[in-house]
Specification:
The chain has 298 residues and is an alpha+beta fold. The protein folds into 2 domains: 2-204, Ferritin, core subunit, four-helix bundle (Ferritin, Up-down Bundle); 210-297, Sandwich (Immunoglobulin-like), CATH 2.60.40. The protein has 8 helices and 11 strands. The strands form 4 sheets. It has a 4-stranded antiparallel beta sheet. A hairpin with a 2-residue loop joins strand 7 and strand 8. The radius of gyration is 18 Å and the shape is globular. Keywords: Signal.
């Protein structure tokens, strides 16, 4: 199920347009920045479940082959996301960023379930990657209580409705805010003004990375393609590599002139791939050539 519907659910969204990614010049420098970042994530998750569950009733879930408790559990997850929005909004008060108009483009209940797993894993890695930036111990506790619930969501979705291995390894991947926002911006259609003044993100275009196989095995040869903002192919520009993020580490593979690359050994489960210009250290906005593409290494 993962291999086919994952591409339909996520790549269809990612391929709609090149949205925006944060500049390295201004991102998450204060506790308020981190909380606004968290609220941005929670607004998206809240809207995702609210919209999908209004569209898909118990019968739709049953007709798709899901057990009777699956939709109820998603309703519970949706209530968690709404509670997270309220808590963070209450803390931020008049500074709280407002929800945007979102476009998720799931095609049916199966693609909704798969994309839910993607979003929950992304949210989990976002909190893991940002919590160390918080200085106020009360805010650290707040973020930790949300993070632990996000991790439960990210575990339940693959293990119950998808019937697959929920574990990505001994450690979750801490993603930088720049990478996370590059992905989340693909779901944002329109935001109320002044959106950019309440968020700590300066944005610039990042191309979408697409993988020819989103469920490869280590050692497989696949095609990783991205295009520049002007539409020209970037796959043949040197140097270029694919960075594979997972289990709190990064593995690199060379990106050939036709986009060919070999999936590295040493990673399994849900990982995030992106094109970079350097294989030294972890990816950053200084060497990122594309946004993230989720994959599931077998």
């Amino acid at each position: 199920m993962f291999k086919k519907t994952f591409l339909l659910a996520f790549a269809a969204i990612a391929g709609t347009s090149v949205r925006a990614a944060p500049s390295s010049s201004r991102i998450l420098t204060t506790d308020i920045d981190v909380l606004q970042y968290a609220l941005t994530i929670e607004h998206i998750a809240n809207a995702y479940y609210k919209g999908a569950l209004a569209e898909f009733d118990d019968k739709v879930f049953a007709d798709a082959g899901y057990s009777h408790d699956v939709r109820n559990r998603f309703v519970e997850i949706g209530s968690h996301e709404a509670a997270h929005v309220k808590l963070l909004s209450d803390i931020l008060g008049s500074k709280a960023t407002q929800p945007c108009i979102y476009e998720f483009l799931f095609t049916d209940v199966v693609s909704f379930v798969v994309l839910a797993g993607v979003l929950e894993n992304l949210a989990d890695s976002a909190y893991v990657g940002a919590i160390h930036l918080i200085q106020n111990p009360d805010y650290v506790t707040t973020a930790a209580t949300i993070l632990s619930v996000q991790a439960r969501h990210a575990t339940w979705v693959p293990s119950d409705p998808e019937r697959s291995n929920p574990f990505n390894g001994a450690f979750d991947e801490p993603l930088p805010a720049s990478s996370v926002i590059a992905q989340l911006m693909q779901f944002i259609k329109e935001c109320p003004s002044p959106f950019n003044s309440t968020l700590p993100f300066d944005v610039r275009p990042f191309p979408t990375l697409t993988l020819s196989d989103d469920s490869p095995a280590a050692g497989d040869s696949i095609i990783a393609h991205f295009a520049a903002a002007d539409g020209a192919s970037d796959a043949g520009r040197k140097p270029a590599y694919v960075a594979w993020l997972g289990e709190s580490k990064v593995e690199y593979s060379v990106l050939g002139p036709g986009g060919e690359t070999i999936v590295p050994h040493g990673l399994k489960g849900v990982v995030y791939a992106l094109a970079v210009s350097s294989e030294n250290g972890k990816p950053s906005t200084a060497n990122m050539l594309s946004g993230l593409a989720p994959a599931h290494i077998l």
